[in-house]
Amino acid sequence: MLSYLTYPTWLSPEVIPGLPVRWYGLMYLVAFAMTFALVRIQVRRRSLDVSSDDTMNMFFWMIIGLLLGARLLSALLYQPDMMYWRQPWLIFWPFRNGRFVGLVGMSYHGGLLGAVAGGVLYCVRRGWHVREWADIITVSAPLGYTFGRIGNFLNAELFGRVTTAPFGMVFPTAPRFPASEEWVAATAREVGIQITDPGMMINLPRHASQLYQAALEGVILWAILWFLVAPRAQRRGVVTASYVIGYGIARFVGEYFRQPDADLGFVLPLSGDPGPIHMLTSFVDFTMGQVLSMLMIAAGLVLLFVFLRTDRQRERIPSYGKPETATPGKNRNRAKRARKKT
């Protein structure tokens, strides 16, 4: 009896077969549109005199920073042969061996740093409060991640590690493993895949980690920030720090199910015997994504401490709080001031 799911055959990376329009790119357009709409809601809630054009201009510079940072960190940290350190001019060169291949490899953490740099520079140039706008962006952005991860799923990429769970899924684009390896044969038997030839290559079920991350980094993180943190945050920067901590935790957990980069494997194998990178055999063997997430959590905690200590004045966001009602004492004081003026 088979105890796994099969990737839906009716799904295709192309929106319309034969046309160069892919679901992945479309999902990112939806993500940016969703984030922009949520930012405009925040602007209205805070009664800020900022036009849609100003917001769009800030988005433009943040996206430029995101693309530059994502590409740079991916090329400099995730390339095991250190090619880009020796030939940095190839980082943004989209050709290999005389053919166009695009810019292969983007890092979320690098994209975050680049987006922060672009946003901060734009805010400083316009004279906007950096922490206030950081809160506006970070409370709005996570829901957009959901669509990006769904795009990964539709592309059948960034799939997870091998699993014997009944909700594991066989992805058509996943690499196959030789049945001659003991762990492969044992996994195949457990999920009900028959081995007819010891030399056959088997496509084993994997975690649909794209959907896990869509839920963790997207819907859940956004809901916590939007409904729980932001309405109660009375000091600017608290939402931003909470986002950094929350995303770091969500990404750290998600990395346990996501397939590590084959070239890097476990960059911090504390167990001493991590086993195959294709399966979760230990919780103390960490990937590059988990190491960066731990640094992100630490940075978020530092930011939270600094913001709470340096911003002594409690700043209520008017739109989140209830309108202040006048008390009898306040009414008497106002009446006295009015009599003095007359």
Tell me about this structure.
- Helix content is 53%, strand content 5%.
- It has 342 residues and is mainly α.
- The chain has one domain (5-50, 128-322).
- It has a two-stranded parallel ribbon.
- A hairpin with a 2-residue loop joins strand 2 and strand 3.
- The chain is globular, with a radius of gyration of 25 Å.
Helix-strand makeup class: mainly alpha
What ranges have pLDDT less than 50 throughout 5 or more consecutive residues?
Answer: 318-332
Strand order of the largest sheet: 1-4
Question: How many β-strand runs?
Answer: 8
Strand count, sense and barrel status of the largest sheet are: 2 strands, parallel
Mean pLDDT: 86
The proportion of strand residues reads: under 5%
| Count of DSSP-assigned helices | 11
Number of domains: 1
Radius of gyration: 25 Å
User: How far apart are the first and last residues' alpha carbons, in Å?
Assistant: 91 Å
What is the H-and-E element order? EHHHEEHHHEEHEHHEEHH
Q: What is the helical fraction, as a range of percent?
A: 40-55%
Given the C-alpha coordinates, what overall shape results? globular
